Amino acid sequence: MSIIQQLVSGIGVPNFYVLIPEIIILITAFVVFFIELFGKNKRSLITWTTVAGLSLSLIFTFVIVLGILNLITNPQILAHAKESGFYSFIISNFFEQYMTLFGLYSVDIFSLVFKVFILVGTLFVIFHLRSYAESKKTYYGEYYYLILFAVLGMMIMVSSPNLITFYIGLELMSIAVYILIGMYRKNYLSKEAAFKYLIIGGTGTAIISYAIALIYGFSGKFAFGDILKTLFYSDQTNVGLIGGLILLILGLALKASAVPMHFWTPDAYEGAPTPITAFMAAPVKIATYAVILKIMVEAFPFVSEQWSLAWAILAALSMVVGNAVALVQKNVKRMLAYSSIAHTGYIVAALAAPTTVGFAALIFYSLIYVFMAVGALMFLSLFERFEGWTNHIDDFKGLARKNPWMAFVMGAFMFSMLGIPPTVGFMGKLFVFLALIGSDIWWLAVLLVIMSIVSAGYYLKVVSNMYFYDPAKPISFNISLPEKLSMGILAIIVIILGIYPTWFFKVSTNLSSILISTIGG
Amino acid sequence: MEYLWVIPFSPLIAFIIIGLFGYKLLREPLAGIVAVIGVGIAAIASIIGFIDVATTGNYYDLKLYTWLPLGDYKVSVSLFWDPLSALMTCVVTCVSTFIFIFATGYMKGDPSYPRFFAYLSLFVFMMLMLTLGDNLIQLFFGWEGVGLASYLLIGFWHYKKSAADASFESFIVNRVGDWLFLLGVLLAFVTFGTLDYLDLFNKLPEAGYWTVTAIALLLFGGAVGKSAQIPLHIWLPNAMEGPTPVSALIHAATMVAAGVYMVARVMPVFAASDLALDVVLFVGTISAFLAATMGLVQNDIKRIIAYSTLSQLGYMFAAEGLGLFGEGMFHLASHAVFKALLFLCAGSVLIALHHLLDVQKMGQIGKYMPITTGAFLVGALSLAGIPPFSGFFSKDPIIEGAYEINWVVWVFLWLGAGLTAFYIFRLFFLAFFDGDRLDPHIRKHVHESPPQMTIPLIVLATGAVLLGFFKEFFANFLRPSLDPMSMTFLNEKTKILVEEGLSRSHHVHIHENAWEFLVHSLTSPLGLLTLFTALGGIFVAYIMYQVKIINPAWLTQMFKPIYLTLWNKWFFDLIYYAIFVYGYYKVSRFLWKAGDKIIIDGIVHGSGKTAIFSGNVMKLSQTGRISAYVLQMAIGMLVFLSLFIFLT
Amino acid sequence: MVPYEYYVVLSALLMVLGLVGVIIRKNIIAMLISTELMLNAVNIAFVAFDFKLQEVAGQVFVFFILTIAAAEAAVGLGLIMAIYRMKKDVSVEKLTELKF
User: Which residues of A fall within a CB distance of 8 Å from B140?
Assistant: First the structure.
């Protein structure tokens, strides 16, 4: 009998091992916490402990994806896998849904894939965090374990099979993020941004809790599957439930920063330390998109008419407001904040088409969005370290002359966000567009195209400033090779996925069909 | 046939190598050599593939991987190798190879030498993706890719304002065509549910006439933009701001011919609609004639050749509109050779004269540059359609065919041929002979170009002399791709449909054998008329610019309105400038009705302003005050809640 | 006995009151308290619904909300302290440097 089995049987929770990635994150967070409290000369130790914890968690997530733990712990499955061949075993494992903590936590391929991307995005942020914090004289060990707690929150969130788990995960994530935004030493803007997000996010929490209360009150259940059954057996025009659903949508829209609940986004993004902005823009965002999709599909598939319309309106508003206001921004960090509002619009637009194709488009776009958002914001974080760089659009002038590699990298992110082939952003928009057309939602599809064209106004401005102007300020940039490499990896991912998106698209299509197949299960 | 994959990917690998190591490791000579090797390998592979297709007559449809699944249909990255694509690929790779070699000499000493070759290799890769695709999406990908490469290369010397402007202009004008093209592709997909050529052709009989017409016309809209036909032609002459090898490769031999290739590629779609063929014919004819007239009065050596490119592309489209697809493609191949030759000669002259472009300031170069002069003469005779040069064998059949199908078209093409001969020899006499108008400072340095520039000239000149005699071979070679009865991949219904569509050219009989055609031309009145028109054009140029019996200045005084019209390029630039640059302030002189003003102002000017204005307005909601934020959120929530609760 | 709807209406009223409080209060501490008020309104709603459903799950949720409200208040007060140290003021009017 292996140690893991003993542990599992000791705790008495079936399928406990699927929690290993989360437990690793939790333990790492506490380890980092204690190193920070008691350690000496601890800075690189903290960074590497965090990186190690995240990587280990990533590895175990993969292990669960492949069902290897299942193989080790269960001899019957091992025998069966040997019979059917490992490849087909791994494929069949993709359809497995592991429930643990007595039905309060579910791990399936959908949540695992999102966990992988959350962890990867966080790794890129952690990698650049220290040099930024030290150059800005705002280093704290707290960044690391708060980020880890936020990651834990996200992982709980995407694995939630009911509204309670979802709520805990969401709040764990949100509260950690409130603190992270305000961690900029002696910077008033950071405090203001954090307080604004705290108040508005707190309002959002209240809205979500009230929505949960209403849903609970009129269905008597918290679990997604049970809510679905109640909706199925009762008449669908229950005002309380619809009200609860709409409030829940608005609360989630607030966390995903969709218009008209977006007001905290530009301020919080601008005030936060830039790596934290990247963290908020990429891993936090995609966890939110994932959970939006999960709740909508698993709990409310029978009222999809209502929520698809609601998300369509939110998406349309987000695209219009996000792009139009981004067009007149001069600060690139704030522009990217508005652009992230616009991207929320593009992504949730996929929910207007409640079909397999639409969900696949949402998953695909969310996954690729990690690379673009982390890339563009980490670029700013790298350059902010240099004296004289203010993120103003004019600071980009002549960058191609001074640092051609970084200019190319930023160009790739901008083109991808704009959606020009051969970058992957084009694919994301194309899939959303096709999904919308497939469901005959032409107005939103046309709006998406028009707004993408409008967005060219500000993305291309960055590119043209980099390539067609002479340097305006005498700033010297020395960016180390590992930093260049890590940014290059992101840019190359963005381009290669644009040329070869097949694999990603298969993953998202399969995820979406698996998601649908689990309804009511 | 898997080795064919080498063709597109060897230039791509060259691009990646130069892009990564160009400035650090390779630098001046090596970057060029890598590019030449990359494209050379592609040329050799495509010739091997060409021979295979020529001997067996097979076609191959190789799929690399599925790029993106659209429902049931899967877009794949693929390689479609049939006579048509083999011919186009060979033209692209072979002409590119010589131009690349030429460019290693031409770009000598340029600080951005590696960048130039990286862009050129990228261009060749994109062009090959365009020619080799088996579906419209890949074609479109290549289409956009060559547009991008062209944009980058026109603006290669971006510190020159004119170059930056020209590249921007070409980008904008091409986008107009590309949007039409994309709409055509979307419509085709909606109609047929597939974009693979072969499936699409075989589903043609199922679609309605007007749908097919719309698809064909939208696709042709893309071709008009890419091949610079009237009314989207204005970017091409200005694109001459790029380095001369770029003008030769992209804006003469290959990219601009992509439109012609595309129409031939989806020939069954066009053949299924009379109207579409008529539009192709009309646009081609008008372009062939108008561009020739515009070329008469230009003084910039490269622009004269650019207008001749416009005009010759017009001939190709006219041939396709007449249903003579084989002749059109043959003219494409021969044009690629002699036009590349003319441009490279111009490049050689420019190097000798330190980038002096005005032909009025040249003269007597022939003395100093014998090889260039000889090569230019071959190219000019070929362009003018004088036997036995290749232009004669490829252009005259089009004019002759036009006579038997539609005499109006014939008149324009015939006049165009005379004008062509005139303006190219005007350039020839002014630049290479005539009096000595060269600046003495420049004249001191005039010299023949180095071997890596003259050898490509000699090779291309030989090609321009010999290619015409392979007329019969090319006609037979292209038959499995362009003759509906020999197209093995079509089903019976489609064959009948396409056959009917091409019936306008059925009664035309053109001698396929080059000798027979030559003899026929020299004996029939029609052939002689065409020939003497061309010779007449040369003769007029001779007496005006060499012996100067007629004074050109006097002529311009005599026919001032005509001269001004031509000098201003039929006012196209002016009109577009007025419409697109100055918005309605200038347009109001042309368009009196207030409604038009509002519409044009609204579309051209207004959209950008509206976006910025609405951005500035919406920005105001972000007041910075939490109270205001929460209030707006609360209002939004109220609206949403009431909307949905009353809705249900 | 008071029907449960009354409690739900009360909770809704408290919720709106909290929202209005966030909108109209000038003092950022009062703002924070208003958000707490909203969360407590939710607690009443949960208890009322449990009363209707004859269950306890909602009351379990109340404990989570209480915990989260406490965490939020702690973070909020910390931020207010930091803001007060820098600006010597807790008025919302001062909190408007990030805008447009």
Answer: none
